[in-house]
Design a protein that fits this description.
Length: 132
């Protein structure tokens, strides 16, 4: 990966880390009861872990071509769908707050998804400009 490409990845990784930090802070302070806080933490954590995997897979795919990156989008969507179902079943089974889990996961996921799309676009532009 070129120096500029590495900078692009670091920038987007930093943004993802900051979003995760904000999500965890909100999970710590917004829910009123401990069960909801725990569920929100699990949701944010699951979104963050899948976000890290997604960004790494997209980094690898973008270095190949845009079609590979699009395939990764499908794989990551499936991974996150399974994660949400498993996580939701887990928190419900333990009597934790399902709404807090969903809010924690999707509140973090939507912002991370935007960062991932931004990364793919920036890395693709960088790769295209390097081919000239």
């Amino acid at each position: 990966m070129s120096g500029h490409g590495a900078d692009i990845f670091r920038k987007h990784s930093g943004l993802a880390a900051a979003v995760t930090g904000v999500g965890l802070a909100l999970a710590a302070f917004l829910p009123k009861d401990a069960e909801s806080r725990q569920a929100a933490f699990i949701g944010v954590g699951l979104a963050a872990v899948t976000g890290v995997v997604a960004l790494l897979l997209k980094r690898r795919a973008v270095s190949r071509d845009l079609n590979a990156a699009l395939k990764v989008v499908g794989w990551v969507f499936g991974m996150r769908a399974v994660g949400v179902v498993v996580g939701l079943l887990w928190v419900v089974q333990r009597g934790l707050g399902a709404v807090a889990f969903v809010a924690g996961f999707f509140g973090t996921y939507f912002v991370l998804q935007w960062i991932e799309v931004s990364y793919v676009m920036a890395a693709s532009r960088d790769a295209a400009s390097g081919d000239e």
